[in-house]
Design goal:
Two copies of one chain form a homodimer. By secondary structure, chain A is α+β, with helices and mostly antiparallel strands. Chain A is built from nine helices and 15 strands. The first copy, chain A, is globular. Chains A, B: It holds the Pfam family PhyH.
């Protein structure tokens, strides 16, 4: 990759323009989805499918006993007054319930261990073809009866615009700690959409992350772009029993519906970034988001 | 059935108390789900399953050509200025889009014909074991991207409280005019829940129907009751291609999630009531709802 310095902002040329005043057409990404060059626990067929669809699923990544251990850890965190008061904890306005806790790989020993577990870490290394660092970690709690969903978005669009991630050389692992049915607000993806970058319209407001963590408003793809991607690729849902995991590309378009069922959902979410994709200044925001949402330093993870 | 006159309200004794100030425990209903005594197009196995689960599905009830015809009719209705201005049309506040049109079996010749079609009418007669009348008819439009769902409810609870329907001897047919996926806000049901009546807390406000048609607030079952029913019965979703139909009991607990996918949903919805279950005064409301929402006269349907 040739880095041409943009002297205005001391960052590479922006190959993924977004948050523009006028709409830009979606375009094909240049980087691969699977970078290759490293062996790991993903078998060739699964890796090829990941390359095509932008995601791969792993049933029973965690054992039932491990699921129970991590569920107890999430209960402990959500009921700890110090954790609730921490700025890294997102509390839903209307219900006062904990919805997410960020940077848990630094505050929970169990989750610190999990992000270095070969079942997790070596899959990320294998897809990204390099050593990796944690860009973000969090645990999510979606309640039953009144669980809110997330509208369609590409994580990379946000990480590029607001965190200064140069390329979509990052991958997320979502590990379900509860059973995901088709009807309780699980993740929906547009398979194959990771190959298309969808620029979004509208400048990023200051401290946008405070609103965007509970409700997306800026960085929203157009309905026309979503319709085209869905018509081409359809919609896949991440369903499966507790302990299963979804590994998905940073630019995969995804979202989730609400959850009126009595079945709550919780998961552990870790974003791995290639150490060759270190953050620069944000491409479309006045200041980077806090480090607990988007780690500014890229320390390679090691066991 | 012995009708004991309640002299305060000139209506039979209320065997399904609801909208009370204090919570009442759920209890088993006394009436059957399938009344029997009439032959019809439903085969014995399907009828037995309907009796157990409170619903039955019919793939390709309408042919693809019929689906196209009815979709065109719905488009015509939704874009007709006179229809939009009619009090029987529900327009979503935030988007100004038509969400439902009531009493369409009186305003659309095509739908008037459909409710008398043997595929529809004779199934209702067969389940209810009698001649039937239309209690309510409507067409529903759920848009893509921002389709709102409906929280869990028993229709009978509302029809009993607000319309004066004595018994759950009524059945609804929902005919899909678009494909129902697991992820675009299709109907969810708690199978078997029709056998349990769940009284709801809270007095019915005046003209409650104006708010309740877009958002349920009163007549909402408790989370404890929903959790018990879902733990016992699970959740089923109504999925299938356009033209398929769901026939379900008036007391079946059902709801729907929102729809952020690009795939809109529309359907035709007809409620048949047994002519032996004619409405009386509302059991828990000051005045009955308008006739276009709940027909006060019980004329047996005939071809």
């Amino acid at each position: 990759m040739t880095l041409t310095t943009d002297t205005r902002h001391t960052r590479p040329v922006d190959r993924y323009p977004t948050r523009t005043a006028e709409p830009l057409a979606p375009f094909a990404r240049t980087e691969p989805t699977v970078w290759g060059g490293r062996t790991g626990p993903i078998d060739p067929a699964t890796l090829a499918a990941h390359d095509t669809h932008g995601y791969s699923r792993y049933d029973s990544l965690l054992s039932p006993a491990e699921v129970a251990t991590f569920r107890a850890e999430l209960d402990r965190l959500a009921t700890d007054d110090a954790v609730r008061a921490d700025e890294r904890t997102v509390v839903e306005r209307s219900s006062a319930e904990v919805r997410s806790i960020f940077e848990v790989h630094r505050t929970s020993e169990l989750i610190a261990e999990l992000v270095r577990d070969p079942r997790v870490l070596d899959r990320a290394r294998q897809v990204l073809g390099s050593e990796v660092s944690v860009h973000q970690s969090r645990v999510n709690y979606m309640p039953g009866f009144h669980g809110k969903g997330f509208y369609w978005h590409s994580d990379f669009e946000t990480w590029h615009a607001e965190d200064g991630m140069p390329s979509p050389r990052a991958v997320s692992m979502s590990i379900a700690l509860t059973d995901n049915y088709p009807f309780n607000g699980g993740l929906m993806v547009l398979p194959g959409s990771q190959r298309t970058f969808v620029p979004c319209v509208g400048e990023t407001p200051a401290e946008h992350y405070k609103a965007s963590l509970t409700e997306q408003e800026i960085g929203v793809p157009s309905r026309a772009a979503l319709s085209r991607l869905a018509a081409e690729h359809g919609v896949d849902q991440f369903t499966g029993t507790a302990g299963s995991a979804l590994l998905f590309d940073s630019n995969l378009m995804h979202g989730s519906g609400n959850n009126i069922t009595p079945f709550p959902r919780s998961n552990i979410f870790v974003v791995f970034n290639s150490v060759e994709n270190a953050l620069v200044e944000p491409y479309a925001a006045a200041a980077p988001r806090p480090g607990f949402i988007a780690a500014r330093s890229a320390e390679p993870l090691a066991r």
